[in-house]
Amino acid sequence: MKVCASILFPLPLPEAFDYAVPEGMDLSIGDHVVAPLGSRAARGVVWDLKQDDGKRALKMVAQRYDAAGLSHTTVRFVDWAARYLVQSPGMVLRTILRGEDSLMPSPTDTVYRLTGRPPARMTPAREKVLDAMSALEAPTAAEIAREAGVSSGVVKGLVEAGALEGFDLPKDPPFPDPDPERPGLDLSELQAGAADTLKRLVRAGGFQCALLDGVTGSGKTEVYFEAIAEALKSAANGQVLVLLPEIALTQSILKRFTDRFGADPAVWHSGLPPKERRRVWREINEGRARIVIGARSSVFLPFRNLRLAVVDEEHDPTYKQSDGLIYQARDLAVARAKIDGAAVVLASATPSLESLVNARSGRYVHVPLPSRVGTAVLPRIETIDLRQHAPPSGRWLSDPLVAAMKDTLAAGEQVLLFLNRRGYAPLVLCRDCGHRMTAPDTQTMLVEHRFTGMLVCHLTGFSMPKPDVCPNCGARDSLTSVGPGVERIAEEAAAHFPGAKIELFSSDMAGGAEAVRQLVDRMERGEIDILVGTQIAAKGHNFPHLTLVGVVDADLGLAGGDPRAGERTYQTLVQVAGRAGRADKPGRALLQTHDPEHEAIAALVAGDRDAFLDVERASREMLQLPPYGRLASVMISAQSEDRAERAAAEVARCAPNADGITIWGPAEPRYGVIRGRWRRRLLVRAERSVDLSAYLGAWRARVKQPPSVRVTFDVEPYSF
Ligand code: ADP
Question: Where do the annotations place Zn(2+) 1 binding (predicted)?
Fold first, then answer.
């Protein structure tokens, strides 16, 4: 009996297609091949091998690449993720292969360089290629053609004319093997107990998930290092994935890995240069990279023998990818580990309600670390009631906060002022006519950035210089800035403390990751007195001289329709307060609030997380929201409001009838227009017993809309 191969292409096609296998071609699942697709030849991956019943005339697989194929568990993960995320498997495969610029790994691809001999005949297209070459490092012909925007024939012509030459890429240097036997720090008794539990899970083999639930500064990293060492020891080629939020910003943690295991880990994030990306991808695919530290997209790496996945700061909302392929990296990491039979460690000082509920029910092993290492104690958290201590108009720092700052600075210690608002002012309006400056596309408020003199839409990136006259009534110099952003708080702090060294820490910083690293270094060394920062300052940093955290607006984030708003605010405030007093000096956090009785804030002050969670849990349970029910959103967008409206009604009509499903909408989402596309949203709530993915898959199959209408399914949406 002959064999036929199902080939999956990294394209938005509904399924894999069957092909005949030529005599003598030895194929395995996961192999990279070329096969005819329509009128062209396309690269794809062998998805399945079966007996050919000979009833259909099949086209033939054209070529098999020698490069290492995808592991079986990677193939199964693609199928699982496609079903779960309501996506075509080809689109998930595309995400997996994105590590390879040319989509497929092929050491047989020739790379090119300039010879320095210009071609005898020059054309505009050839000139484009020669220009593009200066920015490329060892590109393939396809990369050159794409970069220069020409056909690959032009590249070939230049090779024949002697201006370009092919050469063999020197083999990528392998990642050095980490040494799991190197000793770590001497663990406290509490840490050692937690580490033992994790090591036991890893040693047991098979899928198991632990929640490492330790307060800020409890030494969680050192504890999961032990689990990593165990995973490396347990299998000669075992691999470990460590997910970190905002990896581009967390250089100091990378150094801790290098120190602990005596070798640099493989690092993966979207900012890697193509050559490095290819190298890391291949080393992982071939099982040689043993420790991989990555941003959320690293859940799509082609592991060969995953033994352990660690998700640090597992509650972090940046694990949710909301553009393109929509997914929650923590959830996918757990699913991937299940397929590979690997252990999972979720670590956080403020675990998500989902994970805590799993830990309480016994699905996850609960590993608590209730106190800080060494002599460090948790910061004292107090509120400042703004109803009694309102700063004068146009100011945001209350007298008690300024007094505390003064004491801290006098003691030679550092202050962090936290406000989760970038820019100078969140609103610019006309004093004469009341006109608000909004983005033309989205009607969202434009945020003033005073350092750059621009008004910016934080949703789309639209920006314009701040005008001198009101675009509505024409009044001159009437536009006024309302409310504070971090820039404005820094200005106010400077007015109070003219001698202090004050710096801003937000994602708007010029100079990117390198500037962030330098700023963190200066802060660690005590060269900054007052740091004024957004979310990005709240995460993971260890600033030994920081003893006072002032939260400018603790109420920000509590409003709005997001069912996770309370949980998010609580998590952010615990994290930011946790920056204080991490070394031998005790820290304190002062929260300015109009609502000190709010459950999230009261629980924070009392240090009573469980009281807060009980309230949260009860309300989620009553509404059957996650984790008690499941939620999905269906977003419909079109080029006019009317078409979006009609398409949404049509999509809603296609929804299959099923028990245990409730559908709300169509409604206008929080941002009704983005980049010129009008949006409508349906929310789907499913009882836990319902197979929501199957339901959404059936729904999607019934949706027939023209290409100008986009219909996007989002499982476990984060904001709506
Ligand atoms: P967490 O992730 O829980 O906030 P970390 O693992 O980052 O905590 O540890 C906080 C700080 O304490 C780090 O500087 C770390 O090096 C240090 N530390 C952790 N465990 C120990 C230990 N057993 N002995 C000495 N220092 C430790």
Answer: 430, 433, 470, 473
